[in-house]
Design brief:
With about 110 residues, the protein is mainly α. The chain is built from five helices and no strands.
Length: about 110
């Protein structure tokens, strides 16, 4: 596994336009009366972590159970890295284009 600094250097940053768009969506989420405070925070984090993707997996339907297990472990590690980054520096976490990150960079 690469060091945290090496991984951070490889991460792609969102374009200014994509970041502005995400911030506009975040503003609408925060203004929503349909979510409680915890729901708002979860929705905002999901927006930046998943980039607006609505579920679904990235592996082919004929993937072996081993391939699926590896992919799930990598996605879990990526999610953990996002959560840790969000706690340390939420502004940097917002700028990183997490959907374009290589989940395997975050495996132990």
């Amino acid at each position: 596994m690469s060091s945290p600094d090496e991984v951070l250097a490889r991460l792609k940053m969102r374009s200014d336009e994509a970041l502005l768009s995400a911030r506009n969506v975040e503003s609408r989420i925060r203004a929503s009366s349909f979510l409680d405070a915890d729901g708002v925070e979860d929705a905002v984090k999901t927006l930046y972590r998943d980039g607006g993707r609505c579920g679904g997996s990235d592996w082919p339907s004929d993937a072996s159970s081993e391939e699926i297990a590896i992919q799930l472990a990598a996605e879990t590690a990526l999610n953990r890295a996002f959560d840790e980054m969000w706690e340390r520096d939420s502004e940097l976490a917002r700028r990183i284009d997490w959907p374009r990150a290589d989940p395997e960079d975050f495996l132990d």
